[in-house]
Task: structure prediction
Amino acid sequence: MRQPLVAGNWKMNGSLDSVTSLIEGIKAGLGSVTTAEMVVCPPYVYIPGVAGLIGDAAISLGAQDVSDQESGAYTGEVAPGMLTDVGCKYAIVGHSERRSIYGESDEFTASKFAAARKAGLVPILCVGEQLEEREQGITEDVVARQLDAVINLEGVAALADAVIAYEPVWAIGTGKTATPQQAQDVHAFIRGKLAALDSSVADKVRILYGGSMNAGNAAELLAMADIDGGLIGGASLKPADFLAIGTAANS
Ligand code: PEP
Result:
């Protein structure tokens, strides 16, 4: 049985005041979430403060990105060991905004995945196609290529304890959501691809859906067999909506 995971990607949003009220709001309603693991991924600078605000509440911490290097002359980067130092359990790698705005390749994403694991972080590997790629009918090729970069570097077993987030790029921040069946089809493809290499990895890995998941559409997405949770952008900035998604994962 895979524990559902609902992760909030706050992106470059917030202030000291707003992250404080966001965490207080989530903590106040956490009792309604019985099954899912709830994760927040604040901007780097707020992570230590958010760790303090979380205290012993059942909210895990993640980072939105991580360096592929351990330490040294990499101005502006944040090492995986620094993230574990301040209480992070997870690190997102290969978010589509990193890939498209900052030109991060499949191979670079795979090296971040490897560095995160080496430091004891659980990587959340984002994969997903652009709208034109879906229209060309190459969604599975794109997702397979993105997964293969990690499998080639780290081996399929590395994915067993990791998290994969399927995020169709055309659904991120657009208000357009993949239908439950569209999402399930890609999730089943991902699990099937892994199962062809190692069925125990395929059974274990959690595959999240991301792309305009919200309080209104979460239940039907989370009801699909291969959708094990959500990576949430906009709706994770509102405690009531984020909690409603967590509650939709109750079993
Ligand atoms: C994301 O950025 O990972 C995301 C899914 O954003 P949104 O929920 O806003 O589409």
